[in-house]
Design goal:
Helix content is about 35%, strand content about 25%. It is of the alpha/beta class and about 250 residues long. The mean pLDDT is about 95.
Length: about 250
């Protein structure tokens, strides 16, 4: 099957001051798939996905070279609005970070920033986003409650709903289940599998079993380099690089 690329990363390097964090990373993220990025702490995984939507440049002293193509257009090219890129490529972080406001206002937050003030349209968008995040049935009678009253797993799904509300084309997730219990983790994983037909997903995870369960392709990073990138089953069953094999078999990490 011919790969339909949504994102193409070409020779991407990132440094913070004089410290290189990513070194000439190249990979292709297919449309409507889940791509997992694995590797030990400090290998550059989080920096990679922050570079995919230009969040990395918010770090003082960050320098980016190379290309990130979204549907063939370089997001670091001249005249590109980083705010628009971040809208197209939503981010969900490791620790659930709902705003200290109602469940409804959390989901509506980005829509209001974009200028949507019509209450009926907001109501519809909030409901649709919570349905897509598998959270509507649990919250439909609690929309005015503070989002911080939700459980950790519900808060993370709320953050996903908030990201989905502005209709991103790509969803970037940085360890979205690392702070969750196994039941909540399973719900988030099921949600991601449901969403991949609607939105391209890039998932950073320390949990190799999670990558096996949910992803179509996996990249292994080490010391700022992308060591190997392949179909998930092939990477875990027949790694082509001895460093990948050493990591997935627990010899280091």
């Amino acid at each position: 099957m011919v790969m339909d690329p949504k994102i193409e990363v070409k020779e991407l390097s990132v440094s913070y001051g004089s410290k290189p964090v990513l070194k000439h990373v190249s990979l292709t993220v297919p449309r409507e798939e889940i791509t997992a990025i694995i590797g030990p702490s400090g290998c550059g995984k989080s920096t990679l996905i922050k570079a995919l939507n230009r969040m990395v440049e918010l770090v003082p002293g960050a320098k980016v070279t190379g290309q990130v193509l979204l549907d063939g257009r370089d997001i670091y090219g001249p005249g590109i609005d980083p705010v628009e890129i971040r809208r197209k490529m939503g981010m969900v972080f490791q620790k659930p970070n709902p705003f200290p406001m109602s469940i409804y206002d959390n989901v509506a937050f980005g829509l209001r920033i974009l200028g949507l003030g019509d209450r009926r349209k907001l109501d519809k968008s909030v409901e649709e986003s919570l349905i897509r995040a598998n959270l509507w049935e649990e919250t439909k009678d609690r929309l005015k409650e503070n989002a911080l009253s939700l459980s950790g797993g519900q808060q993370q799904r709320l953050c996903i709903a908030r990201a989905l509300a502005t209709h991103p084309e790509v969803l970037l997730l940085d360890e979205p289940a690392s702070a969750l219990d196994p039941i909540s983790t399973a719900r988030v994983e099921d949600l991601l599998k449901d969403l991949k037909s609607e939105v391209t997903i890039v998932l950073v995870t320390h949990n190799m079993q999670q990558a096996i369960r949910v992803s179509d392709r996996t990249g292994f990073m080490l010391l700022g380099e992308l060591v190997e990138f392949n179909g998930t089953a092939k990477l875990f069953e027949h790694p082509s690089d001895e460093r990948t094999e050493a990591y997935i078999t627990g010899k280091f990490g």
